[in-house]
Amino acid sequence: DQVVESGGGLVQPGGSLRLSCVGSGFSFGNYRMSWYRQAPGKERELVARIYGDWKSATYADSVKGRFTISRDNAKSAVYLQMDNLKPDDTAVYYCNAKRGFVDVWGQGTQVTVSS
Questions:
Q1: Would you call 100 exposed, middle or buried from its count of C-beta atoms within 10 A (0-12, 13-18, 19+)?
Q2: Which of 40, 79, 84, 106 could cysteine-pair with 5, CB 3.0–4.6 Å?
Q3: pLDDT tens digit string along 62-72?
Q4: Quick one: pLDDT at residue 55?
């Protein structure tokens, strides 16, 4: 079971990035998918979450209205569209797949927002 993130990089404030996460080795559509982030010196925090039926999603207050999570179960993929990025969004972003006791984490992708 694994998930692999991609799409991070350096972007100026106000810019956009789209993160992708592809899962393999498990029934992707049955898993809750989440994006977390961890900034230097801070705890890992939940950014956004989407459920298997992709009809319901939740967001951290700090990203509401700027980030959008979506999933394509046919491609075993989950995405995080990040708009109007701010320097405080700088962090390593992690993809997570969870169902019951099964909890799969990716290696993370760095997002840096700086002018």
A1: exposed
A2: 106
A3: 999 999 999 99
A4: 65
